[in-house]
Each structure stands twice: as structure tokens, then as C-alpha cells.
Specification:
This is AIG1-type G domain-containing protein. The protein is of the alpha/beta class. It has a domain of 238 residues: 3-Layer(aba) Sandwich (Rossmann fold). It is 54% helix and 14% strand. Strands 1, 2, 3, 4, 7, 8 and 9 form a seven-stranded mixed beta sheet that branches. A two-stranded antiparallel ribbon has the order 5-6. Strand 10 and strand 11 form a beta hairpin. Helix 4 crosses helix 7 and helix 5 packs across helix 8.
């Protein structure tokens, strides 16, 4: 069974129990960088992504991650709009699967751009999905991805925010839920880390909420051209009347700049907190190593004392054994002597003998 088929089967099996599970559902059309951003959040290459004229993701995939207080299943879902109606209908089913498995989710919708201009098909797809699964403001993150760093107008973010307020139906677009990501070198790990931090700082401000399906996702290939043309005309009208929105654009740009400054300040505060924790950890580690060294020295001294005591004990034990042997030898000799004395004492006395001298002697010996 292929990886895509296994993930699809896992989605179907888990649809039954979803009340306590949360997701981060990343939506957007093919080529906007959904898989790439999902991999950045995960910190590994979990989903296939590459530059291609056709869609790369064809089935719903997900991986678990902890973001803030929420364990989330990050979904990598096919883009909605394709060149064929059959492919669009299949993509609708894949989007339905994600919402069926994790109705309690944060939704991240990714917009692509061409030269900084929001793509019409991305707006069409957003409005179609939002009509089917009304997005909640506390759970919706909007991302404009891959923006060129050079030749970017100073009020680009404010202009885009106000434009999206005009184009997106039924949602609140503001400086908190709109995130602008620069185009980066995929091989530059520091840039990928910066993008990850920027995404996380945005996502953690939102909470999963339940998304209920109100209607089918309505995208018909024959009507797509007309829908894109309508969005294009709205963008042209906005550009033509841009002077009317200058005050609003300036205000929005100031809010976005303030948000970015606050995020940078929070990041720096967080980095300082991490640095303090690392310093405290280093100090605790140093003290621990000193205590370990002191304990090791005391242990070595104790072992030396124990070895010396053992040698003394062995010597004393040997002396004691020798003394005990001498005592036993003396006791044995004493026992033998006592036995001899008793044996002598127990002998019967010899009979007396009388020896007389000759007649001329006056002495006699009795024995």
C-alpha cells in the first residue's frame, strides 16, 4: 500500500473520534508553498514539495506536532483549483476529509503572488472554501507567501491588507491574522528558522475551533474563468481608487509595523530568557560537576582509608592467629605436664628395702 493510501485510510479510520483532537489545516492552491511551510513547522521533510507546473500533493496527509498548548495534526492538503473538473472534485473530497477528521482546527490559508500581486485563483478558492466551512476569526491565519525582498514598496503590507479586506468575503482581515513571508533560499537553515519563528509567533495567538460544513465547495471549471476575471476587475478598481484608501493603508501599515516590532521584541525577550536559563543551567552544571568531583575525592579517600584499615585488620588477624597458636601450644604443653604429674602421682609407692651393714657397722640404710 502506498504512503498516500495509508494516510487516506488513517484519515477514514480516525473520523469517528475527533472531539478531543485538534488540527492545523493548511489550505491554498497548488504552488503556493503549503508543503514547504508545513515542513518548516515540523522541522523536517515530512511532505513532498518541489517546483512543478502541476500539483505535487494529491492526497490528504498529516503529521503530529505540539504548538503552544495544543497538540496539532498538521494537514498537507491538495490545492483546490486544477485544470480539470475531475481533479477539482477529488481535491474537494480531500479537503472534506481533513475537516471531518479535525473539525476543531486552526485554518492557515496560504496565498501566492505574482510580482507581489495576489493571485485571482487564490481568492476564488478561499471564498469557495469559506462558504462551505465558515472560518472563525479566532482560528484563521492568512499567509502571503514568497514575497520578493527587493523592489518592495514600503506600504506593500498595508496595501495588501486593505485589498484583502475588499476581496475576501465574510472574514475579518487584520494585522493580527495576516502574515507576510519573504521569499527565502530553501537551503539556508537560518532563513528557514526565521520563517518558522514568524509562523509560530502568529499561530500561537489563535485557538482551534469547530468548523461545520454548511454547503458543498462550489468550484466549477466552466465558471472559474469568470470568477477570476471578477477578482481581477476588483483588484484593478482598487488600484484605480487607491488614493481613497491611502489613509486606511497608512494606518494598516503602521499597525503591521507595530505588530512586527512587538513580535521582534517578544522574540528578543524570549531569547534573553532562554539565555538566562542557559546561564543558570551552566552554573548549576558547574556546581554539580564540582560536587561530583568533591564526592569522587571523598570516595577515593574513603577507599584508601578502607584499604589501610583492611591491611591493619589482616595484620592484626594474622598476629592474633599466631598468638592463638602459641596459646594453644602452651596449653597443650601444660596439659601434657599436668597429665604427667597426675600419672606420677597416681603411681604406687615402691616397697621399702632394709640394708644392713656387716656386723662391725653401726649404720644401716633403709630404702
Amino acid at each position: 500500500m502506498s504512503k498516500f493510501a495509508q494516510n487516506a485510510e488513517r484519515v477514514d479510520q480516525n473520523i469517528i473520534n475527533t472531539s478531543n483532537q485538534h488540527g492545523l489545516i493548511i489550505l491554498g492552491n497548488s504552488g503556493v508553498g503549503k508543503s514547504f511551510l508545513a515542513n518548516i513547522l515540523l522541522g523536517r521533510e515530512a511532505f513532498v514539495h518541489k517546483f512543478s507546473s502541476t500539483s505535487v500533493t494529491h492526497s490528504t496527509e498529516f503529521e503530529e506536532i505540539q504548538i503552544g498548548y495544543h497538540p496539532l495534526a498538521i494537514f498537507n492538503i491538495p490545492g483546490l483549483i486544477e485544470a480539470e473538473q475531475e481533479r477539482i472534485d477529488l481535491n474537494k473530497k480531500e479537503i472534506d476529509k481533513a475537516f471531518a477528521q479535525r473539525p476543531n482546527s486552526i485554518v492557515m490559508y496560504v496565498f501566492g503572488q505574482q510580482g507581489g500581486r495576489i493571485r485571482e485563483e487564490d481568492v476564488v478558492a478561499f471564498n469557495a472554501i469559506n462558504a462551505a466551512y465558515p472560518f472563525r476569526s479566532k482560528s484563521l491565519v492568512l499567509v502571503v507567501n514568497g514575497i520578493p525582498k527587493k523592489k518592495r514598496e514600503s506600504d506593500y503590507e498595508g496595501t495588501t491588507l486593505v485589498l484583502l479586506q475588499q476581496l475576501l468575503k465574510g472574514v475579518d482581515v487584520n494585522n493580527r491574522n495576516l502574515c507576510f513571508l519573504d521569499f527565502i533560499d530553501e537551503d539556508d537553515q537560518s532563513e528557514k528558522q526565521r520563517i518558522k519563528e514568524q509562523l509560530l509567533q502568529t499561530v500561537v495567538e489563535f485557538t482551534p475551533s469547530k468548523h461545520e460544513k454548511r454547503q458543498e465547495i462550489e468550484i466549477i471549471i466552466d465558471q472559474l474563468k469568470q470568477a477570476k476575471q471578477l477578482i481581477k476587475e476588483q483588484q484593478a478598481k482598487f488600484e484605480a481608487e487607491r488614493d481613497r484608501y491611502m489613509e486606511q493603508i497608512g494606518y494598516s501599515q503602521d499597525l503591521l509595523n507595530e505588530t512586527l516590532a512587538n513580535q521582534k521584541s517578544e522574540k528578543e525577550s524570549f531569547e534573553r530568557a532562554i539565555q538566562r536559563q542557559e546561564e543558570m543551567y551552566a552554573e548549576q552544571k558547574r556546581r554539580f560537576e564540582e560536587e561530583c568531583k568533591r564526592f569522587e575525592n571523598e570516595l577515593q579517600n574513603a577507599r584508601k582509608d578502607a584499604d589501610h584499615s583492611q591491611r591493619l585488620y589482616d595484620l592484626i588477624s594474622k598476629d592474633r592467629e599466631a598468638t592463638q597458636q602459641q596459646i594453644r601450644a602452651v596449653q597443650e604443653a601444660n596439659n601434657q605436664l599436668q597429665a604427667k604429674l597426675i600419672e606420677i602421682a597416681s603411681r604406687p609407692p615402691p616397697e621399702p628395702r632394709i640394708i644392713y651393714e656387716d656386723d662391725d657397722s653401726s649404720l644401716c640404710v633403709i630404702s
